[in-house]
Design a protein that fits this description.
Strand content of chain A: 35-45%
Shape of chain A: globular
Number of strands of chain A: 11
CATH topology of the largest domain in chain A: Nucleoside Triphosphate Pyrophosphohydrolase
Largest sheet of chain A: 8 strands, mixed
Structural class of chain A: alpha+beta
Number of helices of chain A: 3
CATH class of the largest domain in chain A: Alpha Beta
Oligomer: homodimer
Order of helices and strands of chain A: EEEEEEEHEEEHHE
Largest interface: A-B, 72 and 72 residues
Helix content of chain A: 10-25%
CATH architecture of the largest domain in chain A: Alpha-Beta Complex
Number of domains of chain A: 2
Chain lengths: ~200, ~200
């Protein structure tokens, strides 16, 4: 971002007040100076950041399939279809987190990893970012769910997932965004740089 | 959702406590029964819902271009490239909201509208949904920004936006998700049902 060029858009923090610190949510209200010098307040949630994993299973005699999850999401009161994802632990690198979450939630380990990009899911009221990793060369062992975590793992072809994204069965924005990257990777419009990491 | 089939995933509310009610954020902590009967807490924001508009400008002698915005988003401390979007007013229909937000923020009115789908941007801690509308047959008059709203409007081809989504210049998840729908519409993989509304 070029601060000089964007001076007509940028807001500057004047003061910050903690709204509350819950078990999970940590919220602030900042007073900011708007570009015209007037003041406004901005309320937002501080999030540690997260990763999402698009894990591609290639098995002999099978089409390419993706490792997907079904999980009840309380705020939206629905079982959602999602790519595996999870929050960063303190001081954890994003690739470490991607490896940990994929294994804990699905039991899969991957020998090759590629970072596709990053998304900001909720720019109006959260600092959250989600880094998107592709994974391949998979092997399966037993998953290690956190206590109180209930989710189903299933396999789906990219074509099946794309249809479910377009027909409204998938509404999770991070998963829709992952499908955008996956579609472009599979169409040869986006090259991934794979690294070995197990 | 089939509640009987998904009983092994679903969480049930036991009690709800308001955490706080800010100018913008309204947060709750609910105690829930997990599928195994144990208890957990879920903290989340209640959001009124929103719409996003993919407005397609077709002018003689010009390629198809999209009506885009650049806006500073305080929680992520960046100027973000976005499709126009905004929150529902009380009792407002989503198409009304889409028409209002497109006009207020960009000055464009559209004669034809098509609903593409819905996304949930942050299923772990917000009730927010965003309905995605396509708009075409555009005409331009003077925009009517809310007080304290500062944003730039610009035009971009779908190919240019797709590149910016893949190269990391666009990181807003709703816009990445919109690009997914747009790409599939333009590739003939997703049919829109247009309705006249001005």
């Amino acid at each position: 971002m070029n601060n000089q060029v964007d001076a007509h858009l940028i807001e500057t923090k004047l003061k910050s007040q903690e709204l509350f610190s819950g078990h999970f949510l940590h919220a602030f209200r900042d007073t900011v100076a708007l570009p015209d010098g007037s003041e406004a307040t901005r309320e937002y949630f501080v999030h540690p950041g997260a990763v999402m994993i698009i894990a591609m299973l290639e098995e002999p005699g099978q089409p390419l399939r993706l490792v997907m999850e079904r999980q009840y999401r309380y705020p939206v009161q629905q079982v959602m279809i999602e790519f595996p994802a999870g929050k960063l632990d303190p001081n954890e690198l994003t690739l470490q987190c991607a490896q940990r979450e994929l294994f804990e939630e699905t039991g899969y380990r991957a020998k090759q990893w590629a970072k596709a990009g990053v998304m900001h899911p909720v720019i109006a009221y959260s600092t959250e970012f989600i880094e998107v990793w592709f994974a391949k060369d998979l092997s399966l062992s037993e998953r290690q769910l956190d206590e109180g975590e209930f989710l189903e793992v299933f396999l789906q072809t990219p074509e099946g997932l794309q249809q479910d994204c377009l027909n409204g069965k998938v509404t999770d924005a991070k998963t829709l965004t992952g499908m955008f990257w996956l579609q472009n990777v599979l169409q040869g419009k986006h090259a991934l740089e794979w690294v070995s990491a197990s």
